[in-house]
Fold this sequence. Notes:
It contains 2 helices and 12 strands; from the N terminus they run αβαβββββββββββ. By secondary structure, it is mainly beta.
Amino acid sequence: MDMKRRVGxxxxxxxxxxxxxxxxxxxxxxxGWVTSPGSRQDQCAxxxxxxxxxxxxxxSVEGPKGLRSCSxxxxxxxxxxxxxxxxxxxxxxxxxxxxxxxTARHATANWQYFVGDRKIAEFAGNGAQPAPDVSHRxxxxxLTGRQKVLAVWNVADTGNAxxxxxxxxxxxxxxGDGGGGEPGDCAAPVWSAGTVYRGGDTVSHGGHTWxxxxxxxxxxxxxxxxxxxxxxxxAC
Length: 236
């Protein structure tokens, strides 16, 4: 074996362990969060609430299955567990549609919804890869008033799940897509700060229906003025 080859083998043997240590660990191949109604991390990402690190990765609230925390047990996302923060509360009816946005789709066991320790809904994933956006119609089962809903996406082939908390006011006034023809119901989906809207899309917010004039994300209906992106179509 010539000298150059020997030197190359020695250098390779020394460098390989260093590369293994210095290269970033592979990321999980499943990520997602609830974008409608605007979940706590959705509000953080939009800058509506000051939340620290979660602002940059709302899709990454991952933890072991079976937890009941908004942060998924992640200390860096602990602000999501702080009920004293000024989270926006979505008025809803006796039922409401929740939408998950999956930035990295993974085979799914199920999606579950909890209020406290009470499971109010579960939707099967059948081990299949979900669509980028998946919506579920959740029945609150007689609950009323302000509630914190914990939405859980259980992936099928790991021991982990993704967590997302949504603050709602069941039976409250204003927008929402609650069922039963209750006063204040709006037909358009509830506005979400993290959703991308295109010209012509309609949303409900603050008891009114709004139509986007052009592409927009993060701009709250009712705050952009007469010449802004959102056109007020009236109360609903």
